[in-house]
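Q: Structure tokens for this one, please.
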Amino acid sequence: MKRTPEPYLWLLFSGGGVVAALVLPVLVLLFGVLMPLGLVDWPAAEHLRALLANPLVRAALLAVVVLCLFHAAHRIRFTSEELLGIARFDPLIAMLCYGAAILGGVLAFVLLF
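A: Here is the predicted structure, written as tokens:
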């Protein structure tokens, strides 16, 4: 029986879907709507620096970014194959999509750590 990375990719997809459904809306609501409208006060820069000094906070942010990137890569891969009818290029599309997600994750790691 041939081993395939497909179950792990589906696991990253589902984990990214949970993060995209539960965490991202809160972040967008706070930093994209409530704070710019003045309904919630902006945190002080010192407070944000202190928060980001904690390695657990940076690891959580990295997890959010990486999971969302893999979720998006998986969606783009299968949507492009189905809608455009280019399933015969699946290995190339998978390599481009997941490669971009890995590259984005590495970039996020470099920026956060």
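A few notes: The mean pLDDT is 94. The longest helix spans residues 55-84.
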